[in-house]
Fold each of these.
Amino acid sequence: MANFTQLHLGNKSQETSHKDQKQKELSRQKVLFGSGLLAVTVLSGVFLVITNGCSKGPAKIAGQNSANQNASNQPPSAILPTPVVTPAVETPAEKPARKHVVQKKAPSATFSDPINGVSFHYPKSYVLKRGREASLDLAGLGPLQMDFVQPGGMTVAAIELPRNSYPGTDFNAAFFSVSVNPELSASQCEQFSFPLNLHPENEPGSPAKATIGGTEFNMVEDSGATDKKEPLMKYYHRFENGTCYEFTMGLGTIAVDGVQPVNREQVFRKLEQVLATVKLQPGEVPQVAKGTSHPMVEGSKQ
């Protein structure tokens, strides 16, 4: 009986020790499981920290890019530039550009006498006189004196410069006239009745050759009774189509103390411009029409 009791006690002690071992093993497993769980938790936290850091970097860059893009998309008026102060620099004054002045030609009129075969152009501001009107009183200088060597000449027309053509000078009048003489030969047309020259080869009043407007003329100058060498009258002769044509240029001045003398060369140059427009052609047979008593004049009052 005692033995059975001991055995039973022995078995009971063995079962108790075995149970303690199981509890210890279970406690150790719990510790290991808790340590593993803690390690996993720590590793997860580290991973989350790293992941959040990486995600914040691109997001921050994307945010900066988005902000820059929004700033660039704003209208220019919203972006205020920083004012830049530059020192004032003095620039030299530019010279005004020269304006090209176009000189307009004065309106002109045309005189045409088909019977005597002569025509010319003249400024409309000049005064036109025809036939007998021109020979009676020309530019206030009295009747026109022709310079043919033989009678038979007649005045066709004349023009006068305006009296105010040269203000502030001793200019009084100037004219240009046309006369014809169908009775003269070509050799006689080369001669002039005045100024008289006993020795043409020595005196300056002998006929000279002058070309104006492409046409050659025989020409003499007359200074009148004055001692000045500058002429007051010029006569041009041209023989064409069986007729002797005479073109006269005259200048009248007044003697006033303290008044500047007019440039005679300039006045005669204007008259020569009219002579340069002269056209000569064969005359037509006169046809008397009703109410027609003088040659046709274009651009002038009838």
Amino acid sequence: MTIEISRRRLVGSLGAATGGLLLSGCDKIVASSKSQDFLDVGEQVTFAVQRAVVGRSAMAPEFTAAEMSPVFRTNGNSNPNTPEYAAHAATSFADWRFVVDGLVAKPLRLSLDQIRKGPRRTQITRHDCVEGWSAIGQWTGIPLAALLAHAGLNSRARYVVFHCADRIGGAPYYESIDLLDAFHPQTILAWGMNGQPLAIGHGAPLRLRVERQLGYKQAKYVMRVQAVETLAGLYGGKGGYWEDAIGYQWYAGI
């Protein structure tokens, strides 16, 4: 299967997905304790308010190859360590299939080879970890917008959920973003890093890069993307593993 997305089709898909939403005319929100409260949990605010947050549509800074960090730490889990994942890793993910489902017209099952042959974007960006460290790396992957457009989002979809291969303390790891971040041009599912195939420690076969947010939103080992209307009822209901476990903010904008 070849993923071919025209600009007209991509814009049309985004319009259909957001057609029923209120588009805010505000360009700025003053940074305050009240606006910060809006960001604590995505389900506590409307999608229209989320769209109005400062800088949501702006591009994250990009860097040159000369500015790349000599060492890029492997944050979080360095290996899912499950029999299923180990079997896929042993064959370089030859038989692995990536799933796009939920509120879509055409659910997808794609091989890693199909994804690598699809649309691609390469970007050199800075990863900012909530633990206080940063690193600059190069990422190559398929734009999430291209996958969602190819699958055909239902107009009820409001969020995209990333289901991952790893678990922490027995709990499945997952993350989520809204459609504004999902269709941002720098939001990609990366299969390459620094000119090489993505290593296991950095999230092979696919890792989310949502460059306007902190590192814990950059889910690794992504196996499935699900379009949903609400985050309620998904695991702990707050939109991500760390959000559920220790109360990290759902929107981690930088």
Amino acid sequence: MSIRFLTAGESHGKGLVVILEGFPAQLPITAEEINFDLARRQLGYGRGGRMQIEKDQVEILSGVRKGLTLGSPISLFVKNKDYENWEKIMTPDPGGESSGNPLKRPRPGHADLPGGLKYNQRDLRNILERASARETTVRVAAGAVAKKFLRSFNILVQSYVKQLGPIGSKQIHVKNGKINIYADKSPVRMLDKVAEQKAMKFIDSAKIKGDTLGGIFEVRVTGVPAGLGSHVQWDRKLDGRLAQSLLSVQAVKGIEFGDGFKNATKYGSEVHDEIGYKKSKGFNHLTNRAGGIEGGISNGEDIVLNVAKKPISTLKKPLRSVDIETKKNLKAAYERSDVCAVPAASVIGEAVVGWVIADAFLEKMGGDFMDEIITRHKLYIKHLLAY
């Protein structure tokens, strides 16, 4: 069994839509549960003015009846409240009003130029509207459904910010299942309160300079059984699928599993996780430097991903660019933007990771309704303990 989703919509269009296909029947889900994650995505110190305009709320259009999924496609809609200010510009009807100032100066680091070249667009707004990270709103909505499904099997997907610009946080140990509770209380989703204050000051400094900041966040998945994914084909490897999903998030430029980059500098004897056995738990690993995946298959330990997000490419003090019509050297265009969106990106990371884990879980367990899947999961856990 496989699940998939498809999104549609532009940043300043009427709204955003996502269709989820393949989810089992009888999963309890409500708009309020999805809205909880949508609100988390909009928080974070350094966000721009649009977060004051949009208070994202999902409307469930199909696939759910009386709070339970039907097994049919689920469609979710999030209205863009700012559309009323853009309706004449973004109307799908012929003869709509010109923006008056079509985007001709592509922004370095954005999809503007390569998208314009690929699709032969002379107004680069036709690229930026879809390339915008606003699209992740409905990916977070889809991920909220996936994470609700996983919680039925005590699988939790959590995240926090490890570094913001040059400000890194100390490793803070938090009880299992409490990471999001603590991270969501922080304006920058950091667990280290000292680093949190330094990061906020650095964001203030970047804002004054008209600049932007990136950072690193961690996504951690607990409760994943061994055996998700496969070694037999490249596109079935769980780490490959997770990397693709995260790299598809706007501005994400690097993925590390466990201690991946640090491990590259060490001897093998210092890297590989030794194996142990306890009758009550079955096989386990004495460390988790691999980040919970070996040979493309989950090994029963926490799945740990470190994700690097580059600074936002829209700068209040723009970099050099070239007008696509006149070919003159000019400053790049400026659109209303955030200074820092790393805290929001960590919530988006949860969503896309949760979706892949849910897909791999259903692939392994099978089943079309929740009780059937729960029974198969229990049998599989018995197999792992008896192996």
Amino acid sequence: MSVTKIPNPIDRHVGARVRMRRMLVGMSQEKLGEALGLTFQQVQKYEKGTNRISASRLQQISEALNIPLSFLFKGAPVSDGAVNGGFAEGAEDSYASDFVMTAEGLNLNRAFARIADPKVRKKIVDLVTALSEGAEG
């Protein structure tokens, strides 16, 4: 009898945040692995949440990606026993962060951030809003 282990939601979240930051800085899994003394396959397993990341490894990752350790847990799901004021985020916030963590979302964010003119950025937001409202109707 084989048992398929389902990754813990927090492990998946932290892994996704590692992946998002790695992609944001333009680092390959291989390069991150080299910085950590790991194979790219191990980095893949961390990013998917398949393998848990130890506390010392989390510290190494935060240093390699030049982020505070807290970045990896931002928006993490709250366990049933957690007290109010934890990492909970609303469904709307979750949807937005899930999108931003995709390659498409990162590319869109990077391109949008390079637009210097605030009027142009506003027009793009207005256009996307209009297009999404048209898609709903």
